[in-house]
Amino acid sequence: EDKVVQSPLSLVVHEGDTVTLNCSYEVTNFRSLLWYKQEKKAPTFLFMLTSSGIEKKSGRLSSILDKKELFSILNITATQTGDSAIYLCAVVMKTSYDKVIFGPGTSLSVIP
Amino acid sequence: NAGVTQTPKFQVLKTGQSMTLQCAQDMNHNSMYWYRQDPGMGLRLIYYSASEGTTDKGEVPNGYNVSRLNKREFSLRLESAAPSQTSVYFCASSPLRDSGNTIYFGEGSWLTVV
Predict the structure, then answer these.
(1) How does pLDDT run across B65-109, given as a tens digit for each residue?
(2) Do A41 and B100 touch (CB under 8 A)?
(3) A48 — phi, psi (to 5°)?
(4) H/E element holding B83?
(5) Which chain A residues contact residue B44 at CB under 8 A?
């Protein structure tokens, strides 16, 4: 059965801390891995990863994929209260309709 | 560019009532999806449509029906609402068979069944 697992499920850190969020997957016909940030409403796109070992970076956020070990990490450095959100990992599979499986999400709370 | 638009944003239903959630995308995407999101369970796929005129069940289809009216529109119908269908519903779309796909979400519809 295809599945995506995220850890930890929730995390509380202080402003300025660095956090690492984990996503592991077991799917058939992997196409890409997506990271989203979700605050009060719709998930907003962060990164798409298709190749192993190539870091994607945007400001204080970065992510990397390991297709051999079937996992990805999302790093956030110098966290701010505005980083508080649910972070979703999703895997897109090569099917007739781009089947997308989401993990349960990691709820991050950054306190001053 | 509106992206994915879904209505209504909020709805309260009584048990047994019916309603339709509307979704439209203006990005010329082939694939469209309906997800529900519940605390601690992530996003679960209800139905999807790979192209105009085709629909298929996802992970949690019971109690729902869908219609892919045309390439732009994909509606979700609750025929007889139940309290277990209280959730946040997201419509989404994506281009098909591109190597660089991502999935685009609507703003969500908060549904409460009492």
Answers:
(1) 999 989 999 999 999 999 999 999 999 998 765 555 678 899 999
(2) no
(3) -125, 130
(4) none
(5) 102
